Backbone:
């Protein structure tokens, strides 16, 4: 089932990027906390249903971890070009991983409400363009 405006929120532990706010804007949100320590993310094995459904992806990753870099690269390979992707990275990672981050939006701090609102608008615009 395709849910218009669906945002995949990939955050560590039990957090999320203001799921309630995004849902109030009319965007259903799927939350993924990534693979458990010692396990491989499904997208690196045989694909991920959540990624396949996403109309926008916002995730916080630790680019110092090899698997997280591989996940980002895989997103870029399998997600359609019109699906907005935002990577929330630590200070300094934007420059250090410039080549890997090419083609995705980059935030170096927790997103503000206005940044989330802007991202939601990008997802909506992509959906309308796709129609």
Residues:
């Amino acid at each position: 089932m395709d849910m218009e405006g669906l945002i995949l929120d990939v955050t560590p532990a039990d957090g999320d990027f203001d799921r309630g706010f995004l849902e109030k804007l009319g965007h259903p949100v799927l939350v993924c906390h990534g693979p458990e320590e010692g396990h491989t993310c499904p997208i690196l094995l045989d694909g991920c249903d959540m990624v396949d459904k996403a109309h926008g992806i916002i995730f916080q990753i630790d680019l110092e971890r090899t698997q997280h870099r591989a996940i980002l690269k895989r997103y870029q390979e399998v997600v359609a070009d019109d699906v907005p992707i935002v990577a929330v990275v630590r200070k300094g990672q934007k420059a250090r991983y410039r080549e890997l981050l090419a083609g995705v939006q980059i935030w170096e701090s927790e997103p503000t409400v206005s940044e989330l609102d802007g991202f939601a608008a990008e997802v909506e615009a992509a959906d309308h363009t796709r129609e």
Notes: The chain has one domain: 7-130. The mean pLDDT is 88.
